[in-house]
Amino acid sequence: MIDTLPLAIQVAVAAAFGAVIGSFLNVVIYRLPLDKSIVWPSSACPHCARELSWYENIPVASFLALRGRCRTCGARIGVQYPLVEALTAFMFAAAWWQYGPGPLLASRLILGAALLVLFAIDLEHHLLPDEITLPGIVVGFGFSFVNLLPGWRSSLVGILLGAGVLWAIRKGYYLVRHEEGLGLGDVKMLAMVGAFLGWELTLLTLMMASLSGTVIGLGLIVTKRGDMKYALPFGTFLALGAAIAATAGQTILHWYLGQL
Ligand SMILES: [Zn+2]
Question: Which residues of the chain have pLDDT under 70?
């Protein structure tokens, strides 16, 4: 089995497997908002619709070999494709190195893949599809019965707290401003994070999301790339916040509680 090989080889295999999964995540990111099937047909150039051959579907390598252009029509291939593949490869390698095989690895990788897809779709379409968030809540809660952390009680409180806090903020914003500030997608997304990470890390996710949202929002204002009305999709910040909470959350919480 793979866990008897030297660690460097295990990590390399995990990275290669991650790159292939990343390639599939690209398909999900591209097709899910368009309501297209994610299993059929096989990948094609979005510009000239020619089906891609196997050697044009190799993660990262094909993009580099084709210098980012379609072989027949010359249309540019978005740099997000190799980026998503490389990021997923890194995520798989790092998670294997950190957790080793087991249910914790599986739950963290599923959460990571969901966050990556939600980040990309929210950034482009300002949309957080139910197809990801709702099954995510169920799967995250299911894993909480197998994994020691967070345990099913913290997971359940995380779901209710994550959804409740954002739902209250959404209501409050609407009462004050008479416009939608937060979508229901954000509410479901934080419930999903709560299911996977438990209530403590859900609060940390919200803190990190608000903090990174403020920093990046101020940056956009200072550099005059956007103004206060510029609608930055909050789901992208929730994804960043949850990624920080999932990887460094325990360390941050220990440090933070030690300061009190
Ligand atoms: Zn083409």
Answer: 1, 225-231
